[in-house]
Structure formats: structure tokens, C-alpha cells
TrEMBL record:
It comes from Demequina lutea. It catalyses: D-ribulose 5-phosphate = D-xylulose 5-phosphate. Catalyzes the reversible epimerization of D-ribulose 5-phosphate to D-xylulose 5-phosphate. This is Ribulose-phosphate 3-epimerase. A divalent metal cation binds at residues 31, 33, 64, 173. One of its GO terms (cellular component) is cytoplasm. Keywords: Carbohydrate metabolism, Cobalt, Isomerase, Manganese, Metal-binding, Zinc. Belongs to the ribulose-phosphate 3-epimerase family. It comes from the Bacteria. The keyword Zinc applies. NCBIfam families: PRK05581.1-4, rpe. Pfam families: Ribul_P_3_epim. Its cofactor is Mn(2+); a divalent metal cation; Fe(2+); Zn(2+). Substrate binds at residues 8, 64, 140-143, 173-175, 195-196.
Amino acid sequence: MSIRIAPSILSADFGRLESEIFEVASADFIHVDVMDNHFVPNLTIGLPVVERLAQISPVPLDVHLMIADPDRWAAKYAEVGAASCTYHFEAANNPLQVARDIRSTGSRAAVAIKPGTPAEAVFDLLTEVDMVLVMTVEPGFGGQEFMREMLPKLGALRKAAADAGTDIWLEVDGGISVETAPEAVAAGADTLVAGSSVFGHLDRAAAIANLRVAAR
Ligand code: DX5
Ligand code: ZN
């Protein structure tokens, strides 16, 4: 199985975002963290910036919405060009409808769970989404320590998806490095978000290559 790598631009230099995303063009996706200071205690970028990034990016966007009311917003991010659009289960009033709204645009739909949310919470959604994102830190900030106690959720999701007759991607986000990537992959992850472990290195292409080797 080949592992997908998605560098998170949360750790990039926002003053030179265009060149930053070209520096990670060897990645499979670019992970874009949208935060609203309501669902998480941090604020980043919104719809107009994501729309422009989608136009200029050499790599498809994996948009991670850490926002309240994804019921209202998620499909709009898909419409402006997010190849994959992830909303938080905890934030959605009607998680099933959000998934359907995203998919109706032609984009991939994904649902994310915070560390305190059990994998079982999204079992009913597995046939309605293309990916589940298991957070391995509390969402809100880059550079936090990997929570390896989240890893059993991946196996539980993989089994539940097989039982439901569906094949979904499993993404992990938070604290992924050359040290922790092998653990996440062994536990069942196939898509790895990496912020500080890519943009914390001057040679981003080498950092991505090193993650690929570690995750193999
Ligand atoms: C955190 C974000 C992550 C963050 C990961 O809430 O969702 O995508 O950028 O950063 P690292 O890889 O540094 O933990
Ligand atoms: Zn993220």
C-alpha cells in the first residue's frame, strides 16, 4: 500500500505561501487547516484564501475544517476547489447531511474525530464518507506531541469499514514525524498529515521523501 503524505501549511510561512506550496509539490495533497476561533481556540484562513490556493496549487487540497457550523460551510469549500473536504463530527448538527453535501459537489468527503471522540461515533457514516481523520493531537495548533493512545481507533475503523463493505482512507493528523509515522501506518493509517516535520526543515522535498521512507 502506498502511503499518502499531506504537508500542513499551518507550519508554512504565510508571507510566501505560493512558493511554499510549490516546495511541497512532491506531496500527494496539501493539507489546509481552516480554524474559526470557535470550534478551536485559533484562527487561520477562510474561503477566499482556500479558493485562490486551489487555483494555484500544483497538488490537490485536503481541507481540514476546524470550524463551527460545517453544515453551512463545508460544501462551499468543496465548491471552490477542495479535492477533499474534512469536517468535524463534533461540530456538525447533521453529520450525514454534511457528508452528502460535500460529495454532491464531486469532492471527497471526510469526517474528523477529536481525541475525546470514540471511533464508534462515526461508524454509521463509513458508507457515506471517503476518509476518516483521526486526530492525534487536540486540534488547534501545530507542533504538539503525538497521542499514540489514539492509534487503536484506526484498527477499529478499518474493521468497521470492512464489515460495512466499504474501503475508506484513514488519515492521522498531529505529531507525525519520521519517528511516529511508522506507528501510525502499522496501526492502519494510509494518509499522513505533517506540519512541523515538513515545514520545520529547510529542504521540504527531503523531509517528504524521509517521511515516505519511514512510512513504507
Ligand atoms: C492541528 C492541525 C494540524 C497541524 C499539524 O490542529 O489540524 O494539521 O498543522 O501540525 P504538526 O504536524 O506539527 O503536529
Ligand atoms: Zn489539520
